[in-house]
Amino acid sequence: MGSGRRVLLRPGRPVRYPGCLVIMSENLFLTPGLARAGHYAELYSQLEALTTTEPDLTANLANTAAALRQAFGFFWVGFYVVRGEELVLGPFQGPIACTRIRRGRGVCGTSWAEGRTVLVPDVEAFPGHIACSSDSKSEIVVPVFKDGKVVAVLDVDSNQLNDFDAADQAGLEHLMQLAAAWF
Ligand code: SME
Predict the structure, then answer these.
(1) For 116-136, what is the mean pLDDT?
(2) DSSP string for residues in 79-145
(3) Torsion 73-182-15-43 (CA) sign
(4) What digits encode the pLDDT tens for the residues 140-167?
(5) How far does residue 64's CA lie from ligand 1's centre (Å)?
(6) pLDDT, tens digit, for every residue of 107-124?
(7) Which distant-in-sequence residues (6+ apart) come within 8 Å of 70 by Cβ?
């Protein structure tokens, strides 16, 4: 095996750490050289295994954000959770970010209001984009549905222009189907 991003040699084999109550594999397995679509598929099965045994929402959102950032090196990955008429910042990986976004505002609020994935190749060209960091250049926001309603959005930012395509959209939407069970 090459020297790419992979740390788990036996996928699915539990590891026991002293003081850790949950027995699980805390490492990701990512086959070196795969296109993103392949890595999304690998992430899906590992996150499914990790989260079906964990009932805590925060734990599952946090590990998902961490896994996506670890796998792809995105600039910022995180969740905003619906709280009344606002989205409130949830577990994330990356620089600090704005904490509350109103429905319909920015990319996240648009994704929530319209109940669809919003893919933004150039954030400066998106009217009303909320700039938490000037380093963010492109973005994709995917809603999480529970019983037909949006309960959260996954926000992924890249420091490169045009970094997301249909493969990212498909991979992230598939992952967010898992997330419904966490709410
Ligand atoms: N750019 C987002 C705000 C959240 S940050 O990117 C983390 C938006 O326009 O909704």
Answers:
(1) 96
(2) EEEEETTEEEEEEEESS---SEEETTSHHHHHHHHHTS-EEES-GGGSTT---S-TT--EEEEEEEE
(3) negative
(4) 999 999 999 999 999 999 999 999 999 9
(5) 18
(6) 999 999 999 999 999 999
(7) 5, 28
Total number of domains constituting the chain? 1
Does a structural domain hold residue 110?
Answer: yes
pLDDT at site 27: 85
Atom of ligand 1 nearest to the CA of 111: 10
The enclosing domain of 100 has a CATH number of 3.30.450.40
Residue with CA nearest ligand 1 atom 5:
132
Tens digits of residue pLDDT in 50-72: 999 899 999 999 999 999 999 99
State which residues form the domain around 130: 74-182
Pocket of ligand 1, beta carbon within 6 A: 76, 97-98, 101, 106-108, 129-130, 132, 136, 139, 155, 157
Question: How many angstroms does the Cα of residue 33 sit away from the middle of ligand 1?
Answer: 30
Find the 161 Cα to ligand 1 centroid distance in Å.
15
pLDDT of residue 25: 56
**Per the domain annotation, does 138 fall within a domain?**
yes
**Tokens found for residue 15:** 């590891």
Nearest-atom index, ligand 1, CA of 157: 6
Q: What is the mean pLDDT of residues 103-108?
A: 98
Domain membership flag for residue 4? no
